[in-house]
Prior knowledge:
By secondary structure, this protein is α+β, with helices and mostly antiparallel strands. Strand 4 (about 75-80) and strand 5 form a beta hairpin.
Amino acid sequence: MSWTKKILRVNLTTGSCTPEALNMDWARQYIGQRGLATKYLTEEIDPKVDPLSPDNKMIFATGPLTGTGASTSARYSVITKGALTGAISCSNSGGYFGNELKNAGWDMVIVEGKSPKPVYLYICNDVAELRDAAEIWGTSTWNTEEWIKKTHQDPVMRVASVGIAAENGVLYSAIVNDLHRAAGRSGVGTVMASKNLKAIGVRGTLGVGVNDPEAFMKAASAAKKVLADNAVTGVGLPTHGTQILMNVINEIGALPTRNAEDVQFENAGDISAEAMRETRRDGTTNLVANQACFGCTIACGRVSRIDQTHYTVVNRPEYWGASGGLEYEAAWALGAATGIKDLEALTYANFICNEQAIDPITFGATLGAAMELYDQGVITDEDTGGVALNMGSAEALTTMVELTGKGEGFGAVLGLGSKRLCEKYGHPELSMSVKGLEFPAYDPRGIQGIGLNYATSNRGACHVRGYTVASEVLGIPEKTDPLVTEGKAGLVKAFQDATAAVDSAGICLFTTFAWSLEDIAPQVDAACEGEWTVDSMLEAGERIWNMERKFNLAAGFTGKDDTLPRRILKDAAKTGPAKGLVSSLDKMLPEYYELRGWSADGVPSGETLSRLGL
């Protein structure tokens, strides 16, 4: 306990669903979810496999705290070789699906092979069956969830599915559960669709036990009080959601704007958390309410409604109801990255991304790159089918998000992601990506540590692999200067290792605005057999990080891929506190390698691998 000690292996080629015992030796080394599933994946696939080949596998994994009484115990991850990047991929999601899978008695579902026809996986406790999905192939995630619940006459069944974007080969398609929670990045949905697997519908009623109930309740209750008493997790996130960051990051001069040509967006206030609360001309507000995932005491999720008089929804009444609203990364990608200040257009585009399971970060960043190329005359109206892709055009956003989902016209090109799009038009330097993954809403010129994290992140440019913004901007757990490089190598390593442990435990990373591993380790220790301490969890996090690195090196990545776009390294910030600065990655990277116990070209040493049992 609190592992169920059971795995479901689904072979789509043969149509079999087979239970297996969890490898407990691995569980004690890798905790669960991200770490444990990555261990299974790296043991079972060739790192050089084509991500869209039947030989690639994908794993839906919960953590030992998933489904327990710990706060934010909703999390599950999808682990595979990413369709967009070809790197190790682990995409994390909340909502209710992870809890339901754990309550059905499964730590993980390993999906392998390819079905000869579209299917969905039905799970009800120990019953697991592949069923025909012909009727829902070619439809949205919203339609799929509704159809599966109606078919099984179970309105509380939880569903994770792909939309038409994945079926049409959009390389950054997500997997959406509970209508607007997503395993969002690296193209995990594209891998799922390539296997002709449309969805997983799960119902679990078995409950989740813990090893020491009394100690667990004591640790979980104490940790919940820490969240409630903290200004970020107790007030800021429930009130404003992650969008609270829009004006904050803009003011410090670290908001990548118009494909990172600038570091401040003059219209950031128009697409901020505050703007979502302003009364519109129809007497309503964009923000309807906040919302929590299973077991969450923070409730940072947004529920929004579009102004029905706005041009984007005049003929789309299905979007008039309330649904998942903008979070910071989506608002930035669809807004500042493209120079668009229209909050309603951003909300509409976000709804499309939820409905068709599109990663809004990569979509917005790719559109921003295309807009820059269009303004330069490299991309023309002939390429776009007559759609003007001027930077800042809300009409271009709302048109292209639908075309991308459908894989039609220029949307099919946008569906390749910014790296392939910019290479296609002869300007690879305009892709704001690392290892093929677009970086999110923090500019490395204004926040030096996050640049080092982007460059070294195993799944490509990613903020949630080592969120140094917590320290560099918010002062958590202690304040560091975002404009200096000293000490950032150690800071990045510490955040990366701790985050790997948190991701593997089955709880939300947002708890770490208030919690340290000193709050988390007692909960894991009481929930699980064995002894879990801060030190053992940190060691597991370091082991997970190096395991992911080994996979990427075997897949063909090298230390040369630990870099940032030329614009970030050569073109200085034009305004704000970081004016005149570029990312000083060259000063931080050698020290980072040394602290990691890696060679000068980024390869883990034999001593490091031996120490970590790798």
